[in-house]
Amino acid sequence: SALFSLTALLIFTGHAGDALTHGSDFLNPPPLADWFSQKSTASKIITMDSPAEDVVTNIFHEKCVSCHGPNKQKGELRLDSRDAILNSADAALIHADNSLLMDRITLPLDDDDHMPPQGNKQLSKDEIAFLSWWITNGAEFDKSLAQLKLPSNLHGMLTEIMAENPL
């Protein structure tokens, strides 16, 4: 009976630890209908006429949403939608003067507070430069990249985004 009790306790604590680390639904597969759906997971084509929101959400979905999305909100932060970003628990997330987001993504990789954590897919220099430019220019979601006057040194990033997420 002691062996049975210890085995049950080990299974329970292991599951509880995984749920704490990976979220409560880490063992739940997607609905069966999603397995056979014809929905494309590719991102929209991003051009200079695209709203800045398309680029921002593309970066966040690629690098941040696995830990800061609808299923898991580490640090009580969601980055999966405009509303989630704007309603963030930390009001300094995207403020130009002191952006917590920029502070975290520009920390050295070996810093415990660096985001995304070591071992996860990191933001490219262009993605960091884009987010810095976007935040510095008021973190506008609705204005197009042309209206916001995307600097020419960041134009190449649009091509990179399309290469990573082809239609």
Question: What features would you describe in this structure?
Answer:
- By secondary structure, the chain is mainly α.
- It contains seven helices and no strands.
- It has helices spanning 2-22, 32-35, 52-63, 82-86, 100-105, 125-136, 155-164.
- The longest helix is centred in the first third of the chain and has 21 residues, at 2-22.
- The protein is elongated, with a radius of gyration of 19 Å.
- It starts with a helix and ends with a helix.
- 16% of the residues are buried.
- The model has no long low-confidence stretch (mean pLDDT 80).
Defining traits:
0% strand, 42% helix, 167 residues, mainly alpha, 7 helices
- Overall structural class, as computed from helix and strand content, comes to mainly alpha
End-to-end distance: 57 Å
Task: Kindly report the average pLDDT value.
Answer: 80
SS field, number of helical segments: 7
Output the radius of gyration. 19 Å
What fraction, in percent, of the residue positions are helical? 40-55%
Shape descriptor: elongated
In sequence order, what are the helices and strands, one letter per element? HHHHHHH
Report the biggest beta sheet as strand number plus sense, adding barrel if it closes: none
Count of DSSP E strands?
0
The low-pLDDT segments are none
Task: Give the strand content.
Answer: under 5%
Describe, in short, the structure shown.
The protein has 7 helices and no strands. By secondary structure, it is an all-alpha fold. The chain is elongated, with a radius of gyration of 19 Å.
